[in-house]
Structures are given as structure tokens and as C-alpha cells.
Specification:
about 325 residues; mainly alpha
């Protein structure tokens, strides 16, 4: 298939997934902010979200150093068109990429993407988002789920479909790692397991919030049937291949779709993807925590970003996204 078509499909799915994951990150912080906590702790949570998203310098340049409060961060991450990672920017980019390959998509798929954008414009014009941010974040997640479901249910499972899926799970791996880092960053600069005593403000409600943010609260109860601990949260979202949003599950999907579209130039890319999957497949959470969770996630993000660059080099048209 044409590399330009593959490029648009790959990035359409990445932007849709990025919008969903931005909504998930904002939602976990928004829900946590409703709990009793000091103003300093609340600000630390929003600052951590911006820093892990690599947007702290941009935010400070626009709003000033003392402006890291919920209202400003939500405005910046949801409706700011100059922020390429905001929800409005991601959903616009997803729609533009979809329109560029309109002939490759089914009618149902295109109408889903287009309806999402039109409804988003209505949301922001009526300021419904400000009245109930939680409901808005749920709507963003629902539209992403709907988009994936329509793609699976209506698209021919050819190369176009596999590039669409590859983009989805590469983005998901990146964002789940960032979401984990946001939460553990709020505890301390790194996390090495149960040896450190957590502040009382980081208790059951905070760990359940991160599980709910990736639709994993009920899954955690089913798998562990016990009290929620940071170590098990990390294990579930990193190593459990049967947890849909885990790093292991995401890399399985990336490798499987990469295998289908592999060409003569992609052997090294496939090898690196396979090695990253194997490292997750055979890892143990105690080994990861012994070297520090932040260090592990930072290295993982570097490798995922490198993998995305190699996929672009091997298959897609050179472009700036």
C-alpha cells in the first residue's frame, strides 16, 4: 500500500488514542483532587502531570510560574489549540488524517470520526466541559472506544487495518507508561517497592484512582482479590499480558501487527520490537522495582519512541507530527 496512506492511518489512530489517554490522565488527577488534601499536594499532582507529558516549560511560558492550578491545566490540556497534545488538537489531527484517506475508510468509520469532532466543538462552545469535567472525560474515552470498535467491525483486515492497529497500541504503550510515572512520581522521585512508607495522603483512594483511569479497578480485584498495593498496581499495568492496557499487552499487539506488514527493510525494527516484548514477557516486578520504577519507565519510553521512529523510517512518509 502507499506509504502516505499508511502514514495517515498510523497517525489517525495515534492521535485518537492520545486524546483518550490525555483524558484518562486528566481524569485521574481531577478525581484525586476531589479528595481531602493540601493545596501543595494538589499542585504537585498537576505539576507532575505536565512534567511527565513534557509540557511544563510550555505551560509556564503561557500561564506563568504560579499558575499551576486545576482550572489552568484543564484549559491547557483540553481546549488550547496551540498545545499539540491537547484533546482538541489530537481530535482535530485524527479527523484531518481520516479525511486524507477517506477512500480507505468505511463510511461508518469516517462518520464516527467526523461526529466526534462536531460534538467536541459543541462541547467547547457551550462550556459543558467546565460544568462537569468528569463527564467530558468519559465522553472522550467512549468516542475512542467507539472508533476502535467500528474499525474492527467494519474495516477489511488488510495492511491498512494493521497500520491503524499498530499506531493505536504503540501510543497506548507510551501513554500507560507515562500515566504510571505520573502516579508514582506523586509519591516520590522514584519507587523501589514496599521499603518506603507512603504519606497518608497517598492511600487506597489514590491507587484505586489510577486503576479506574485505565479501566483496571475491577480487573485488579479479580486478579489479586486483596488490598490494593503499589507493587501490584505496577505489576498489573506493566507485566500482565491479559490486562488490555498494560505495557505487555500493548507490545504484543505492536509486534503482531508489525509481523504482518514486515518488508525487506524492517528486520531490525521487528527485532527491536520483539526484544522489548521479550523483556516484558520475562521480567518480574521485584526485579524492576529493585532498580527503581521511574528508571525502568524512562528507559521503556525511550525504547518505544525509538521504535516509533524506526516504523516511520521503514514504512511511512517522512513528516512532522
Amino acid at each position: 500500500m502507499l506509504s502516505r496512506t499508511a502514514d495517515h492511518l498510523f497517525w489517525m489512530s495515534r492521535y485518537t488514542e492520545r486524546a483518550e489517554n490525555t483524558a484518562r490522565m486528566l481524569d485521574v488527577n481531577y478525581q484525586t483532587a476531589l479528595l481531602p488534601q493540601s493545596a501543595a499536594v494538589a499542585q504537585f499532582g498537576w505539576e507532575g502531570l505536565l512534567s511527565i507529558s513534557e509540557l511544563l516549560p510550555t505551560f509556564r511560558a503561557r500561564y506563568g510560574d504560579g499558575a499551576i492550578v486545576q482550572r489552568n491545566v484543564l484549559d491547557f490540556m483540553v481546549r488550547d489549540e496551540n498545545n499539540p497534545s491537547s484533546i482538541v488538537s489530537c481530535l482535530r489531527a485524527a479527523r484531518e488524517n481520516a479525511r486524507a484517506v477517506r477512500g480507505t475508510l468505511t463510511t461508518e468509520f469516517w462518520e464516527t470520526q467526523n461526529a466526534t469532532w462536531l460534538k467536541l466543538m459543541g462541547y467547547l462552545k457551550t462550556r459543558d466541559f467546565e460544568r462537569d469535567p468528569g463527564a467530558f472525560f468519559e465522553w472522550v474515552k467512549h468516542r475512542s472506544h467507539l472508533s476502535r470498535g467500528v474499525a474492527i467491525g467494519t474495516m477489511l483486515q488488510d495492511e491498512a487495518f494493521h497500520f491503524y492497529r499498530m499506531g493505536t497500541f504503540l501510543e497506548r504503550a507510551d501513554n500507560t507508561a507515562r500515566l504510571l510515572d505520573v502516579k508514582f512520581h506523586a509519591v516520590q522521585s522514584d519507587f523501589f517497592g514496599a521499603a518506603s512508607e507512603l504519606d497518608q495522603e497517598y492511600d487506597f483512594y489514590h491507587w484505586s484512582a489510577i486503576l479506574r483511569s485505565v479501566s483496571a479497578f475491577e480487573v485488579y480485584r479479580k486478579v489479586y482479590r486483596d488490598v490494593i498495593t503499589p507493587e501490584r498496581v505496577a505489576e498489573l499495568l506493566i507485566l500482565r499480558a491479559d490486562m488490555p492496557r498494560s505495557l505487555a499487552a500493548s507490545l504484543n499487539e505492536v509486534v503482531n501487527n508489525l509481523n504482518v506488514v514486515a518488508n525487506d527493510h524492517s528486520q531490525e525494527t521487528l527485532r527491536r520490537a520483539g526484544k522489548l516484548r521479550a523483556d516484558l514477557q520475562y521480567a518480574r516486578i521485584d526485579e524492576i522495582l529493585s532498580t527503581g520504577l521511574h528508571a525502568f519507565l524512562t528507559q521503556f519510553l525511550d525504547r518505544v519512541n525509538e521504535l516509533g521512529g524506526r516504523i516511520s523510517q521503514d514504512f511511512l512518509v517522512p513528516s512532522v507530527h
